[in-house]
Predict the 3D structure of the following.
Amino acid sequence: MRWTLWVPLALFTFFLGLAAYQLSQPKDDVIVSGMIGKPLPQFSLEPISPDRPGVSTADFQDGTPKLLNIWASWCLPCIAEAPHLERLKEQGVQIIGIAIRDKPEDVARFLNRHGNPYTRIGSDDLSAIQFELGSSGVPETYVIDGDGMIRYQHIGDVRAEHVPMLIQQLEAAR
Amino acid sequence: MIAELGLAALWLCAALAVLQLIGGALAQRRDTASGLAAMVRPAAMLQGLLAGLAFACLLWVFAVTDLSVKLVATNSHSLKPMLFKLSGAWGNHEGSMLLWVTVMALAGGLIAMVEKRLPEKTMQATLAAQGFVAIGFYAFLLISSNPFERLAVAAVEGQGLNPLLQDAGLAFHPPTLYFGYVGLSVAFSFAVGALLTRNVTPEFARVMRPWVLGAWVFLTLGITAGSYWAYYELGWGGWWFWDPVENASLMPWLAATALLHSVSVLAARDALRTWTIMLGVVAFSMSMLGTFLVRSGLLTSVHAFAVDPERGTFILFLLAIYIGGALLLFGLRAGHVREGERFQLTSREGALVFNNVMLSAILGIVLLGTLYPLLTEAFDVRVSVGPPYFNPVGAIFTIPMLLVMAVGPLLRWRRDSIERIKLPIAIVTSIIVSVAVLAALMGDIAVLPLLGLCVAIGLAVASFLPLRGRNLLRVPIATWGMVLAHFGIAVALFGMASDSAFTKERLAALQLGEEVTVGDWRVTLDGVDPVAGPNWTAMEAQVSAWRGSGAPILLLPQSRNFWAPPMQTSESALATQWDGQLYAVIGNRTEDGRWQLRVWWKPFVTFIWYGGLLIALGGALAAIGRVMADLKRRSVRARANSRRTERRAKGFA
């Protein structure tokens, strides 16, 4: 039974190999929404900005693919992505915004300072719709096709290199 | 200046650890009293002193909020209360590693100073092993996690400490666990020293035992405190979540529990030699594994406050050296350790072996469940293992273990018969059966809680049976310790079973003045007002609760907003009664102006932590009893020796 003395070392070596392998793998902390490929949940959100109407599910079902941008005036990465959303708007993309846990005066200040790429802005003050979308943070950007189906989810701020990719996704959703 | 002093002390400690390793290694080849070998003990003592100094320096920079030190700037804030400034010193990765090596160095210094019973060669091998382990941790601190690093420009204000960690319970939870982990490192070093010198004797077990017991007491306290902290601070109403980090503290505890029982067998009967050595290695391996899992971020956990994959690589490297090395040594040397004494199955040893096998099985189950996501992730399958696995699978081994635990202490060493203890067995069995019948009549209780209640009550009675027919004044302190610890297990188990069998929960959205009932309590939301603390503001609800015609109890749950760093936490409000706890959490305000209020009535839930305290107290009594007995034996031997020399001197005169 001498060999049994080596069992612990063998098990430990196996663990070491496994742990070393896992450490060498890039850590993927992104929580992808389970809603991709499914229709948008039914909702209707009040406007939060005087010159932009609110948002409801029907607004996504007019046949044109759109971007749904989850953002907030209190969110720093949202400031970083503002110019790139502006770029998308210039290229003819319709962006609908949902402001998370926000106040009208803060939203107005944000849009004044960083531009307003949105055609509509809804106010989700309890993150209710955000959770239904399977979004775990701000900002997030969804590609919604003309029938109101969720086609793609971009987690985190939109950067310059994401602009062509999002346009491609919108084309694919046509 | 103070930070530089701390850093210098750390470097000196590292150098002394190297000296300890080389001296101890040379002693294995040459004379134990010559040259470097003679320096091993002084080096260990000095190392303890300097590590203590380094930690004191860290406490100092936190106490005065020296914002030119990076660690203080990132983890402290000038407005924090003093207790949390100090606990901030170890509420982060670097500081907690420093605490770890400090306690380890102090323990090393202590054994170097007082432990004289083992052959010097074994002692030096032990201290060399201790030095070897310490070197790795010093390297870790000095190379990748320097706690004394200065900022080029001092910060204007600190960034604060995670608000969840700003809690008196948590100020003590990590240090107690560390004392436990480090105590196990001493057991590990003793095991390695004994393997190197092939000196596994009852004397060795007696030397190792207080360290194992001490470590076990601290681990028990640490886990109990951590569980209570999670219970009231996280506001989820649960006390154990089978989270990887909780498991990381439970696994060393299981191994240490097995070890302290097998060490007793070795000390008393000279049996289970290799097994005890193995457990000594495993127990410390589990604490290192825990550190690795917590800090590498390999497993996703709610507790992962200090995650960094690069540090993970470093700790994995240390794990490979220490654990791999010790297991290699075990494979090579354990076959040469002489077989211990034999015994019959029906004997105290037999029961303890059964307990050891069951504890090891539970340890294996927890280990497998904790690492399983790691295994499946290698095949791109994401799973999370939780209570549906741990509870029933763990119970399969826990319940037989507890049943044997009820009668094991009544058995005699070496050889005994069931016939002799059939009366106590009959008593315990009839208690268990009648509780089962009673509980089944009372209502709809799930199988596991029902079993838990029966075994808990049976074990509570059985734990006092070893005192039957004895003069209580003459019962050794260590035996009282065992009785108390076993009784504590029963009390904790009763709390767990009762909590899962009888808890009542109510979630309601209430207008001010509205009433809800939970169990036989009536609960009213009287008001919600803003309140402010030193570094937070909160909405505080005034909730009154009645039972029967008694006086109302006022509960004040809060929803707190910290501003440095910005974070929202819920402070639960607890009302402790003799038969349970009322637990209230205030949530958000709904759109129509009502407040979400969650209330639990948890019968006897407090018994879980009372039980934990009893277990720790029992362990402490056992440790004190053993140390006192050893001291007595030592002084008797010293007196006998001096008498012998006296006689000899007279004879020669």
About this structure: Confidence is low (pLDDT under 50) at residues 302-306 of chain B.
